[in-house]
Amino acid sequence: MTLVLRTTNRPAASTPAQPVLPAGTDPLLHLAYETQPPSGPGATRCLSHPCELALRGIPVTCTACRARRDWLLINHGRNVWVCCRCSNQWLEPEISRADFDALIAIPEGTIYPSVEQGLAALGFDGAFAGTYLD
Asked: Model-level pTM greater than 0.85?
């Protein structure tokens, strides 16, 4: 499954290359640098939201399977997508990046090499369609 960013017609900017550390750098500092979570405008962050989600007092419901809770919120840039266990996903303009940041209780988390691998690892790739995992 591929996360489709449907917010612009502009081609996506390439990810900037990480700076190269000097050859004589301390290996522990190098390891600390490599294990830092991705940040910046190109980072994609995911947040599990097991409860119901209400936007302006209206409960969010999946249009594909009619689920009302157990969401994955995906933040990329200024946009937030909602993903259901059935793998249905949509851009939600009512949730801003500030709202997403306010929901995050723990800033550290598991880092996945790609959005697709993260969706599969968290069970939002359609494998658990029709179930609520509590």
From this structure: no
